């Protein structure tokens, strides 16, 4: 599903991650590591949001050679999402659904499942942190992704929403969608088995 080749990410002269070669099979992965280990940096690199050295290939696609195709199938929900406060949740959901070519009714269904539909018409500036998180998870699941990156998805989520998210992850995974989920919290029972990936000493160790 994903191959890293001579991957290296530095900020200035400080190397944060160095992965000479790693191949990951399709699946659901739990990305772990101490604070500052590089989990968000890895996710942003895979999502194509920050530059890096080397190559990351997802299902034969590479951000440099196939940017449009790659970003259509690699979805990302960041740990601490920020959106322009003057937009409504509905504006963002419609924009994502159109640009990700979401199947008809999918966005509405995700919003209802995650309970976002009740405040979709309000401006994002009025959202609590949990409401913003739920919206970001809906946006991260929209479309026909082959890989979904969820950075700390459980932060600020209430227990009910945590269970619903885990159900959705299971449904997507049953259809062959891969996930990389970073979380300091354990996932609740009911989640399918996840392969653990540890970031240690600037590289990924598989469990
Ligand atoms: N834009 C940046 N410029 C410089 N250094 C950065 C930048 N972003 C992150 N770093 C550094 O990169 C390292 C990895 O940060 P990152 O946010 O990826 O860690 P993390 O594993 O997600 O941490 P946490 O569990 O605390 O969220 C840290 O040392 C951090 O200070």
Automatic annotation (TrEMBL):
InterPro entries: ABC_transporter-like_ATP-bd, ABC_Transporter_VariousFunc, P-loop_NTPase. The keyword Transport applies. SUPFAM superfamilies: P-loop containing nucleoside triphosphate hydrolases. Pfam families: ABC_tran (PF00005). This is ABC transporter ATP-binding protein. Keywords: ATP-binding, Nucleotide-binding, Transport. Residues 2-207 form the ABC transporter domain. It comes from Nemorincola caseinilytica. The keyword Lyase does not apply. PROSITE patterns: ABC_TRANSPORTER_2. It comes from the Bacteria. GO terms for molecular function: ATP binding.
């Amino acid at each position: 599903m994903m191959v890293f080749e001579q991957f290296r990410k530095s900020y200035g002269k400080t190397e944060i991650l160095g992965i000479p070669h790693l191949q990951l099979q399709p699946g659901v992965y739990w990305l772990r590591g101490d604070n500052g280990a590089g989990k968000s940096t890895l996710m942003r690199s895979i999502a194509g949001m920050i530059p890096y050295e080397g190559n990351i290939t997802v299902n034969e696609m590479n951000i440099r050679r196939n940017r449009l195709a790659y970003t259509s199938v690699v979805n990302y929900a960041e740990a601490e999402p920020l959106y322009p406060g003057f937009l409504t949740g509905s504006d963002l959901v419609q924009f994502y659904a159109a640009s990700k070519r979401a199947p008809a009714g999918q966005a509405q269904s995700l919003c209802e499942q995650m309970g976002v539909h009740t405040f979709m018409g309000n401006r994002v500036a009025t959202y609590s942190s949990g409401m913003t998180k739920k919206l970001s998870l809906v946006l991260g699941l929209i479309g026909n992704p082959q890989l979904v990156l969820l950075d700390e998805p459980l932060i600020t989520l209430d227990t009910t929403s945590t269970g619903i998210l885990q159900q959705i992850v299971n449904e997507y995974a049953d259809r062959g969608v891969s996930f990389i989920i970073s979380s300091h919290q354990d996932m609740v029972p009911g989640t399918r088995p996840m392969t653990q990936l540890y970031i240690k000493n600037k590289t990924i160790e598989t469990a």
